[in-house]
Write a structure and sequence with these properties.
The protein is α/β, with parallel strands linked by helices. 31% of the residues lie in helices and 35% in strands. Strands 1, 2, 3, 4, 5, 6, 7, 8 and 9 form a 9-stranded mixed sheet that branches. Strand 11 and strand 12 form a beta hairpin. It starts with a helix and ends in a 9-residue tail after the last strand. It is found in: Membrane. This is Ger(X)C family germination protein.
Length: 375
């Protein structure tokens, strides 16, 4: 009898799973977009249909994946999210957010306060990849992924995978962005998104896809401007996070295709406080994929070096035009040559000269088309 009484009493204290929500009865936010216009925040949440999330484990579907958006406005980000909360009908799950997009107006006017809000929010994880855009955020979030894959399989959701094949502006997550934003001498390259409808077609119909078109430059907690991918190509090729970039050479009426691989960039600093100078030493691997019958030669190697020097210097100049420092010279001196950094007056920071950019091609090979063997 006593056992039965104790069992009945213990059942009263068992909470069970009554409050657990089934996974399909939640609204999964996978994208967060924030802009600032007319003195109020504009928040866009991108939701993915639960059925489409499940399909990624079983393969893609045979119809386009639907994207649901929630739009809210308010004096604060939380006010705007609460507005979406009132209309979405289901509890919002923020755990799956892997893309965060900031509009240009927010980057120029409200970036610092926005980062403070996101850093202190208990709902938003700091692992999502961060981008800037001049496009309407809705247009970015309703762009497509070919072959009917859901948006969370896109290049901007998984940028590291694409970096292995063809590197672009290095991706950055929200945690890294917040850390770098608060560093004194750091210049941030925030990857910039656009929507392109000229690259991919579904049969004869244009297909909107998200692509990287450059970077927003942020320094000293201020937006400095935008630099296009064409102007950043020198930086993209030689920064230490790059994996592979293609390079085309025109030599003796031949077009030569080269893969540049695994660059290692090192700073060279003259410590003379009266006449400091900065430079770059870059080691890189080069593999010739198509030489049109031309044999590997010093001419090809020298042309690669010459083109890289010109592209690196061009990227540096374009960054400098808007007071950016994409090669992080100031950050390097601040961390590793602090006494020299302190001795340099404002506006007197040494400039990079083209003669101080040195390229060493560490491994220079070609690949035979039929055998796949290195030569």
């Amino acid at each position: 009898m006593n056992k039965i009484v104790w069992i009945l009493i213990s059942l009263l204290f068992l909470t069970g799973c009554a409050d657990i929500k089934e996974v399909q009865y939640q609204a999964y936010a996978v994208g967060l977009g924030i802009d600032y216009n007319d003195n109020q925040y504009e928040v866009t949440l991108q939701f993915l249909d639960f059925l489409n999330v499940a399909k990624t484990d079983q393969g893609k579907g045979d119809k386009p994946s639907k994207v649901w958006l929630g739009n809210g406005k308010g004096k604060s980000i939380e006010d705007a999210i609460n507005q979406i909360d009132q209309g979405i009908q289901l509890p919002i799950n923020f755990d799956q957010i892997n893309v965060i997009v900031f509009g240009k107006s927010l980057l120029k006017n409200k970036l610092e306060s926005t980062l403070q809000t996101l850093d202190s929010s208990y709902r938003i994880r700091l692992t999502g990849m961060v981008y800037g855009t001049e496009e309407p955020i809705e247009k970015v979030f309703t762009s497509k992924v070919p072959f009917y894959y859901p948006f969370n399989e896109s290049q901007i959701s998984n940028p590291e995978a694409k970096q292995q094949q063809s590197s672009t502006v290095p991706p950055i997550n929200l945690q890294q962005f917040i850390y770098q934003f608060n560093e004194k001498a750091r210049t941030i390259l925030l990857p910039s998104l656009t929507v392109n409808n000229e690259i991919i077609k579904e049969e004869e119909d244009n297909y909107d896809v998200p692509t990287i078109n450059g970077a927003h430059i942020i320094k000293g907690k201020h937006w400095k401007g935008h630099v296009s991918l064409n102007h950043l190509i020198g930086f993209v090729r030689v920064n230490n996070k790059s994996v592979r970039t293609p390079l085309t050479l025109d030599l003796a009426n031949h077009q030569i295709l080269v893969n540049l691989l695994k660059p290692k960039m090192k700073y060279v600093v003259n410590n003379d406080k009266k006449d400091p100078s900065i430079g770059l030493e870059i080691k890189i691997h080069a593999t010739v994929l198509n030489s049109n019958g031309m044999k590997l030669s010093k001419d090809i190697k020298n042309q690669i070096k010459k083109k890289l020097v010109n592209e690196v210097y061009h990227s540096y100049e374009k960054s400098k035009e808007i007071d950016g420092d994409i090669f992080q010279f100031e950050n390097y001196l601040y961390r590793h040559r602090h006494d020299l950094w302190q001795s340099i007056g404002e506006g007197d920071f040494p400039e990079l000269k083209k003669d101080n950019i040195h390229i060493k091609i560490d491994r220079f090979k070609s690949v035979h088309k039929l055998s796949g063997m290195y030569q």
